[in-house]
């Protein structure tokens, strides 16, 4: 049933928790090079939090290594209060739609700075990672999100996401990727690791169980 497709068994929840923990450990042991996070990062002055929530398709990213085999990746961003939200991630892996399915718990610490957010995997009490909104389209048709955490010994962990409302945004050339990369480079972000996330036309997405 459709309800069954959205069920997340307890044992799978703990298996995902272990996988996320293992990925975090791998990041700590194999971080990106660099003495610190870029100092030129500029977040948006304002984000309309009535327009930003919804389905975001991950069309390009520098993401965690254990997600490198994902396709049909999407985030379902839903406000749960004025300053908290759930960000449900899913992707197809191993030929299975929603082969990875995980809800991140998000916060907006200062509502006067809505572009500066943070997320925790599974539970809000777990360690958080930044969620910095650097760009949105005029119609909120795309977004650029960045995170960077400085680590000891002159290392850092960073991720960059390019989201779109249309999963075929790159194929349809609805997003100026060259422009985005140029602006990221000017902020000090290494764009060489940003890769296209496969969004084939036969993707099955869990939010509505429809083939797009």
In short:
The protein is of the alpha+beta class and 212 residues long. The chain has helices at residues 2-5, 10-29, 177-186; strands at residues 32-33, 54-62, 71-79, 84-93, 96-107, 116-121, 129-136, 142-151, 155-164, 195-196, 204-205, 210-211.
Written description of the protein model:
The chain is an alpha+beta fold. 16% of the residues lie in helices and 39% in strands. It has helices at 2-5, 10-29, 177-186; strands spanning 32-33, 54-62, 71-79, 84-93, 96-107, 116-121, 129-136, 142-151, 155-164, 195-196, 204-205, 210-211. The chain is globular. The model is unreliable at 1-31 and 208-212 (pLDDT under 50).
- Protein structure class: alpha+beta
Strand content range: 35-45%
Measured distance between first and last alpha carbons? 20 Å
Helix content class: 10-25%
Main sheet strand line-up: 2-3-4-5-6-7-8-9
Count of beta strands? 12
Contiguous uncertain segments of 5+ residues: 1-31, 208-212
User: Could you tell me the mean pLDDT?
Assistant: 82
Shape: globular
Q: What is the radius of gyration computed over CA atoms, rounded to a whole number of angstroms?
A: 17 Å
Series of H and E elements: HHEEEEEEEEEHEEE
Largest sheet: 8 strands, antiparallel, barrel
Total helical segments: 3
Write the layout of secondary structure elements.
Blueprint: H1 2-5, H2 10-29, E1 32-33, E2 54-62, E3 71-79, E4 84-93, E5 96-107, E6 116-121, E7 129-136, E8 142-151, E9 155-164, H3 177-186, E10 195-196, E11 204-205, E12 210-211
Antiparallel strand pairs: 1-9, 2-3, 2-9, 2-10, 3-4, 4-5, 5-6, 6-7, 7-8, 8-9, 11-12
